[in-house]
Amino acid sequence: MSEMAQEAERRSASDRVADAILQDIRMGRLVPGQHLLEPELTARLGISRGSLREALKHLAADGIVSLSRFRGAYIAALDRKSVLDLLDVLEPLARLAARLAAAASPDRAQCEPLLESAARLAELQASGKRGEYLTERRRFYDMLVDLGGNSELARVIPLSRTDLFRTQVESRQTDSQRHRHAMGYTRIATAVAEHDSAEADKAVAGHFAGTRETMAELADEVFPAS
Amino acid sequence: MSEMAQEAERRSASDRVADAILQDIRMGRLVPGQHLLEPELTARLGISRGSLREALKHLAADGIVSLSRFRGAYIAALDRKSVLDLLDVLEPLARLAARLAAAASPDRAQCEPLLESAARLAELQASGKRGEYLTERRRFYDMLVDLGGNSELARVIPLSRTDLFRTQVESRQTDSQRHRHAMGYTRIATAVAEHDSAEADKAVAGHFAGTRETMAELADEVFPAS
DNA sequence: TCGGTCAATAATGTTCGACGATTTAGTGGG
DNA sequence: CCCACTAAATCGTCGAACATTATTGACCGA
User: Fold this and answer.
1) Looking at residue B1, what is its pLDDT?
2) Do A184 and A131 fall within a single domain?
3) Least trusted range by pLDDT, from A18-32, A166-180, B181-195
């Protein structure tokens, strides 16, 4: 218990705030395009303006919020081109993560949490719990990156910005699109567990092909005016 | 002139400080492992402690400086594994940038600055101006990314951390290694100018193969204790 | 003299309040 | 109805304060 508390206290206030905002986004409490008022947030989170600004700056660097001078912070909203650009960048990194995870994991036990996460994703998708689905999805990617053991990848891969994109499109997808998405993780996790780098790479590539197809099927109203 | 001044003033103080530190690193005025004192920097740069700390936080997020609690900020030093990990991450992104730049550039005129930059790199390498070489190299990558027109790539690709790695190894390379490195940029720029995406991709892949070879040839003393 | 202990110093982490600058909204006059 | 002007709200920066910790160097005993 004390370890948890110490760990929580050791992290700076701005990091805690940034995590809180990210979690609020995943759970739908904050929606893309929403205006973030400094006085409201400092009051709600009980921190100083300086710490909040530090957190917002951090989130802005990751493209989660957009800061415009004297106009405040807004949760970023991705237009269609940004989403396609993001997928182009994310795909090679995710494929690298999958290849490394498949090649690195020495014993099957370490892959067990990944398989469990994929199973939970299928469950959560079926039961329609979108907030939990997005949170679990993020855990899946974090695990995949960790398994690979490439510390630079963890720093670079834009998972938080992908959370943002998922938040935007999640509620507009059809059930079959959601099902296809969830199944993709199962295929990836299976390939990693089997230590099959080539298949893991192909699984991620196929997953992204499906996502691009879904994007093409979505109406323009899903995206802000570009 | 006023436009320049306005543009400089429009950017936040912390961004200016971060850029100044990055430039100092490229020019060798700051070396990996060096301790950054807040009082010294605030006095030299003429900014408040808050703005400086914001900049340091930003640089720490990009892995340029490492912050250790109550001990201050140090210019990061990459061990051998981190360098190899960084290359694994950077390669697919650089290849994507090259493919996009080759595919996107409609007219040859836009590629002219890239070819000029490659020529300048060959010159600077030959004349041994290492600081200018690294600065020009960064400009080359920035142009390559801009030409592709993928805004997410610019956000994700870890060019600053690559600057850091280059700073560490640049002075330890042999002339033939430096020559091979500089020639790689010429081949990339030429392929982009010819709108040959496949060749651009291969040129970058070959460039990275050469860099990995150089890394294997370097002695352990180049890297900090891992 | 050497090694260990301990207090003084310096640097950092965090927060707060203040000031000037700028955008936005609202208001009154033409 | 439109435009200039005022007022409110917000943001960027700075300086100061306080608590916490690492470092330094003096001091002391073996």
Assistant:
1) 33
2) yes
3) A18-32
Distance B70 CA to C3 C1' (A): 27
> Are residues A58 and A112 both part of a single domain?
no
User: Could A85 and B50 be called an inter-chain contact, meaning their C-beta atoms sit closer than 8 Å?
Assistant: no
Residues B88 and B67 occupy one common structural domain: no
Domain residues for the domain of A191 are 80-222
A148 shares its domain with A190 = yes
Strand, coil or helix: B174:
coil
Do both A61 and A129 map to the same domain? no
List the CATH number of the domain containing B104.
Answer: 1.20.120.530
A45 in Cβ contact with A189 (< 8 Å): no
Q: Is the Cβ–Cβ distance between B59 and B21 less than 8 Å?
A: yes
For residue B62, the chain A residues in CB contact (below 8 A) are 61, 155
CATH number at residue B30: 1.10.10.10
Whether A146 and A178 share a structural domain: yes
Residue A99 tokens, joined:
């290849």
Last residue of a domain, one of B24, B53, B75: B75
A5 pLDDT higher than 60: no
- CA-closest candidate to residue A97, choices A137, A134, A150: A150
Q: Which of A89, A159, A204 to mutate to probe the B interface, most B CBs <10 Å?
A: A89
Contacts of A156 in chain B (CB under 8 A): 89, 93, 156-158
Q: Is residue A9 pLDDT above 70, yes or no?
A: no
Tally of domains in chain B: 2
Shortest CA distance from A155: residue in chain B: B62
Block residue for tokens 């991709």: B201
* Statement to judge: residues A179 and A212 lie in one domain: yes
Q: Do B54 and A57 make contact, defined as CB atoms within 8 angstroms?
A: yes
Final residue of a structural domain among B58, B75, B92: B75
pLDDT-based confidence at residue B175 (cuts at 50, 70, 90): very high
Give the single-character DSSP code of B195: T
Q: Residue A173: pLDDT above 90?
A: yes
Between the alpha carbon of residue A44 and those of residues A26, A39, A153, A161, B11, the distances in Å are: 18, 9, 34, 24, 29
pTM over the 0.90 mark: yes
Is the Cβ atom of B10 within 7 Å of strand C at any atom? no
A·B CB contacts under 8 A:
85
Q: In the structure encoding, which two tokens stand for residue A200, read together?
A: 């893991």
